[in-house]
Design goal:
alpha+beta, 12 helices, 464 residues, globular, 7-stranded mixed sheet
Length: 464
């Protein structure tokens, strides 16, 4: 009897020690449960009880497997989905955990004003702009939400009110896709509840393409026959090992071979570290159609598949939305678009996706020809050759530009210098092309696509 007791005690000790032995100590690891970075400890943080507790709780051995077992056990025996990102609705539908319905009017005011500023900026440069709001699954299937949950649309209602008041050119796909969903499955029943499926993406994108035909009549909307479509079997939810059994649509553009991906040419482009998605696509085949060069800001609704618009344009430059949108003129300088599109998923129009302070204070330059008539400025003419013998021309030192630097790579050229005279905004001009300088308290810079211009022999205009 004593021997059995000792064996039992030994086994208990092993069971308690195993999770500690298999604790994950690797850095830069993301959780498969909620797609967040696992907590890390640096230096004296090990003595911080809260951070130490988070570290142990999230990294202890068998953490994810225990949660997976718990989730699938409750689903099988109690028909409950106890997941931090998902919840069951009616008829077997799965939805994301709903956002708080509190309306941040200050944020929406600032957001709408910034969109109006972008639209005005584009209009003064003869570039059309359109903003598209795409719905969450909850807005398309409100009747299938869990019992007791009342979907609030106050956030979007206030946003569209402000957009109308300011005269922003926008499209809301919420009601449009809700009507299509009565006949077709445009969001999956279970899989990837945070996004539309490929059929929904085609319909939602077509609405924008139809709108753009007013300026570019040759733009063609897409139909299912334009894609190689098939059903793909999925067995678990994204960022989870929660088991499902569903067939979902997958669309691939039949014109893929005609589209050239030049993303690697722009490896040095600046992107916010939390929003790094970026792609460049160009139609290779010569066409007599008048198709635009388009700058697109979009989130995860399109980052996973851009086939729905890449063949509709001559060139498309896709930038991850959110914080990158606050660097709008940087991308406009580089790509010199003929049309600008901003896509937002309904649930992302919130301050946690943007920097609210930067958004509230963001200014865009007026056209140079306006301010040059009424304001004093400093004028600088750059040398005919900024580089001589692979070095920056010594003539630069005579121009009064401190800490001047120029960097060239395969597709981009960037100049920068110190803002020691507290300039507020500025421009760089060469021939008929005018770019905005990016000005902050410490430095002034500008990045260009070398296919548009290089900075040799360019003119700089600085304003206080």
């Amino acid at each position: 009897m004593k021997k059995i007791k000792n064996i039992f005690v030994f086994l208990c000790i092993i069971i308690f020690l195993l999770p500690a032995i298999f604790t994950n100590h690797k850095s830069g690891v993301r959780s498969e449960i909620n797609n967040t970075n696992l907590p890390e400890l640096h230096g004296k943080e090990i003595f911080n009880r809260g951070k130490l507790n988070d570290y142990i709780t999230e990294r202890v051995g068998f953490h994810d497997k225990s949660i997976d077992f718990y989730l699938n056990f409750n689903d099988i025996f109690f028909k409950e989905l106890l997941h931090p990102s998902y919840s069951y609705g009616k008829d077997g539908y799965i939805f994301g955990i709903p956002n708080e319905s509190i309306v941040d009017k200050k944020f929406i005011d600032d957001f709408a004003i910034y969109l109006k500023n972008i639209q005005d900026y584009c209009k003064l440069r003869d570039v059309p702009f359109v903003y598209c709001i795409n719905p969450s699954k909850e807005s398309v299937y409100p009747h299938l939400l869990p019992n007791g949950y009342n979907r609030s649309n106050e956030n979007i209602s206030y946003l569209t009110y402000k957009l109308d008041e300011l005269g922003v050119n926008y499209i809301s796909n919420i009601e449009y896709l809700r009507n299509i969903a009565k006949k077709e499955q445009i969001y999956n029943v279970k899989f990837d509840p945070g996004h539309w499926n490929d059929l929904g993406a085609m319909y939602g994108t077509n609405r924008v393409l139809s709108h753009m035909k007013k300026d570019y009549p040759d733009i063609q909307t897409k139909s299912v026959s334009d894609f190689d479509s098939k059903k793909v079997h999925v067995t678990k939810l994204p960022v989870s090992n929660f088991k499902i059994d569903e067939w979902v649509p997958e669309f691939r553009n039949k014109e893929t071979e005609k589209i050239q991906n030049d993303t690697k040419d722009f490896e040095e482009i600046e992107l916010h570290p939390q929003h790094p998605a970026f792609n460049v696509h160009k139609m290779q085949a010569h066409t007599s159609l008048n198709l635009p060069k388009v700058l697109v800001f979009a989130g995860s609704y399109y980052n996973r598949n851009r086939d729905f618009y890449t063949s509709a344009f001559r060139e498309s430059y896709s930038i991850h939305n959110y914080e990158n949108l606050l660097n709008f003129e940087y991308y406009f300088n580089i790509f010199q678009p003929e049309y600008v599109i901003l896509f937002s998923a309904e649930h992302t129009i919130r301050p946690n996706y943007y920097n609210p302070t930067l958004l509230a204070n963001k200014k865009l330059n007026p056209p140079l020809e306006e301010v040059i008539k009424t304001s004093k400025y400093k004028y600088i003419k750059l040398p005919a050759k900024l580089y001589k013998d692979d070095k920056i021309d010594t003539e630069i030192s005579n121009l009064g530009l401190k800490e001047f630097n120029i960097k060239r790579n395969k597709a981009l050229e960037k100049i920068s210098f110190s803002n020691d005279m507290n300039y507020k905004f500025g421009y760089i001009k060469k021939d008929d092309l005018i770019l905005d300088l990016i000005v902050n308290d410490k430095s002034i810079s500008c990045t260009t696509n070398i296919n548009n211009l290089t900075f040799d022999n360019a003119e700089i205009y600085l304003f206080k």
